[in-house]
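Please check this today:
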Amino acid sequence: MSESWDLFAIIERGGWVMWPLLAVSVVSLSISIERFWYWSSLHGARETARFRKVLRAFRAGDRSRAEESIRTPGTVYDRLAKRMLDDGPDDAIAIEAIEDLRGQTDRFLNILSTIVTASPMLGILGTVTGIIQSFELLGGTRTLVDPRDVSAGIAEALITTAAGLVIALATLFPYMIFKSQSERALGRFESIVTAAKQGLGPVRNWSVRK
């Protein structure tokens, strides 16, 4: 209970800027948990083994084994492989399918990137408002009775700056991890298309093979 009260006391001392910072931190944490679960499932040992099985089937030109390995609706890799089986390993089809699927692999990356940039800026905004508050007390017409009134503005400036930097750093590392996973997914997309071209043949022979 004391920790909760301490948290609210810090937010109160930091001023109104702490509330948008708190909201941003909640969004960042929620997205990080969701993306961690997504990538752990997609690139786990079981799904990786099944992905490699699909690649081997494609390279061998074994449509039946590839179809057995693909799940419906399955992962993004299953959907791309199914598209290659249904429509053929054509570059235009592959590019269209990959662009559609990248919406899932790149999901929320823009939001995390924005949080990394915006959090320190919100902290700086709190710094400015806190300093303004302190200078208004020092340069005001009324007599300053309690010096702690000035320290409240300084505390607001320091707390918001620290909070903004902490949120930005706490978001940056998950963002970089998820971005690398997205690039890894793009590499796997290319592997599926290449394997399909290698084993299933060019598009001009697709009607015969199909």
Observations:
- Confidence is low (pLDDT under 50) at residues 203-210.
- The radius of gyration is 27 Å.
- The chain has one domain: 2-209.
